[in-house]
Amino acid sequence: MNKQSPSWRCIHHCGACCRLCPEERGEALAALSEEQRVTYLSMVGDDGWCIHYDSGGQRCTIYAERPDFCRVSELGTLFDVPPDELDSFAISCCRQQIRATYGGRSGVMRRFDRAQRTEVDRHD
Fold it and tell me: What is the residue range of 62's domain?
């Protein structure tokens, strides 16, 4: 059986990427252009979460119109990641952010890891 690399897959009711606290996201801020950085910082609420994140519904209220730096498809451009490495890079970024936001043994992390494994299993 040929094992394939996992494909990145977002999970519902996570929102870890919406934790924008600049003190916790130095690498992300460094990768942004000056214009993007201004937009990013304008989106940070007093609690460090994006002002467009609905914590009750655990969803983005501007999802369709969210900035390019909020889109996983743009990670390759921002961080100069080759297309064939984007999935593994996105998975690593998500795992890091979920761990920092909810903890490495959280239910969110377990759901995320399960979603990535499920995606691999579909290709077997």
Answer: 16-123
Q: What is the pLDDT of residues 85-119, one digit of tens each?
A: 999 999 999 999 999 999 999 999 999 999 998 75
Nearest partner of 70 among 103, 119, 45, 36, judged by Cα: 36
The C-alpha atoms of residue 4 and residue 119 are separated, in whole angstroms, by 10
Closest CA relative to residue 87, chosen from 114, 64, 40, 119: 119
Domain for residue 113, yes or no? Answer: yes
Overall pTM > 0.90: no
CA distance 108 to 44: 22
Whether residue 2 has pLDDT greater than 80? no
In the chain, what is the greatest distance between 2 CA atoms, to the nearest angstrom?
Answer: 50
